[in-house]
């Protein structure tokens, strides 16, 4: 490459002192060295601040910021505001990236001026066993990541069905935030899925990089698996209501595309709402009233009947 683009790596961290050294070391050892590493300490109560003093002395490319605890999206947005790079890599404080990932994705973006988001394979590993890699969060070998190469409707259709990648799979142009906005700080989970969706609705090209040397590494440990199921269902329901609004508000979609997307989203909404109803209790009416108000009576009744039927089968 004739000109080295600066890559800003944004690392939100909350009480991850035990994992942060592995994450920082994997960046220091990247084959692509023109980077800045922005660690945003989101109100940690452990020794993260003391740990970072060592790294700040070791490598001038590493920057450290502290904020009161505001959540993952806020910490990422803080990092974006302080970043200077042409490209941005998001990396949670317990995760890693392969040695050549940044180099290959910078080349990918440089060679495709119309591309805004390059993403790679994602691999998962059990805590303290980084050499044993799996394809899923459950540490199994099923392929789940679609290999997307498209604009607008193609990307939207895939993303309405499900998320397409772990957040550290992506390398994005910094200009993406001007067009799609920042991370939604009101979402306590699935904020990355929401962000990719907004990029797709903004007609920003997303493309999979097929190179076995470039991949994201996601650590699986007790904290990463500790989300309450009913909360996760609630988060997805909230996101699906946002998707419903985005479909209706999009002026670029054709009528037949709107119909297909609405069907896909409604089907998934019925499924997640029925799971939420079962998780909070089939006969806890006081908990169901807000759900019926939020989703509409028709969808709620269909979901409740599905929950009853599924409960009988199980």
UniProtKB/TrEMBL annotation:
Stored InterPro entries: Glyco_trans_2-like, Nucleotide-diphossugar_trans
Origin superkingdom: Bacteria
Keywords: Transferase
Transmembrane feature ranges: none
GO MF term list: hexosyltransferase activity
Domain Glycosyltransferase 2-like: 8-117
PANTHER family: GLYCOSYLTRANSFERASE (PTHR22916), UDP-GLCNAC:BETAGAL BETA-1,3-N-ACETYLGLUCOSAMINYLTRANSFERASE-LIKE PROTEIN 1 (PTHR22916:SF3)
Record carries keyword Transferase: yes
Keyword Transferase belongs to the record: yes
The name this protein goes by in its record: Glycosyl transferase family 2
């Amino acid at each position: 490459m004739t000109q080295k683009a600066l890559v800003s790596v944004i690392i939100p961290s909350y009480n991850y002192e035990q994992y942060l050294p592995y994450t920082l070391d994997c960046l220091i050892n990247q084959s692509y060295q023109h980077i800045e590493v922005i660690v945003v300490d989101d109100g940690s109560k452990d020794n993260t601040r003391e740990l970072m003093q060592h790294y700040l002395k070791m490598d001038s490319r590493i920057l450290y910021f502290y904020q009161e605890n505001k959540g993952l999206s806020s910490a990422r947005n803080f990092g974006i505001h302080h970043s200077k790079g042409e490209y941005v890599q998001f990396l949670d404080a317990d995760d890693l990236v392969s040695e050549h990932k940044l180099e290959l994705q910078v080349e990918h973006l440089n060679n495709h001026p119309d591309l805004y988001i390059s993403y790679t394979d994602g691999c998962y590993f059990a805590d303290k066993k980084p050499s044993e890699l799996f394809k899923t969060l459950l540490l199994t070998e099923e392929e789940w990541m679609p290999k997307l190469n498209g604009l607008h409707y193609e990307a939207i259709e895939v993303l309405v069905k499900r998320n397409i990648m772990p957040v550290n799979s992506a390398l994005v142009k910094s200009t993406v935030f001007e067009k799609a906005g920042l991370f939604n700080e009101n979402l306590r989970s699935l904020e990355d899925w929401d962000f990719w969706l907004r990029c797709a609705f903004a007609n920003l090209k997303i493309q999979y990089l097929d190179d076995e040397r470039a991949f994201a590494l996601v650590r699986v440990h007790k904290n990463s698996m500790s989300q309450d199921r009913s909360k996760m269902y609630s988060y997805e329901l909230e996101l699906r209501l946002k998707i419903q609004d985005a479909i209706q508000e999009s002026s670029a979609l054709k009528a037949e595309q709107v119909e297909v997307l609405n069907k896909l989203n409604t089907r998934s909404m019925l499924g997640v709402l029925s799971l939420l109803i079962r998780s909070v209790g089939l006969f806890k009416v006081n908990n169901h009233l807000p759900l019926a108000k939020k989703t509409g009576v028709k969808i709620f009744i269909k979901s409740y009947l599905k929950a009853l039927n599924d409960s009988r089968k199980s």
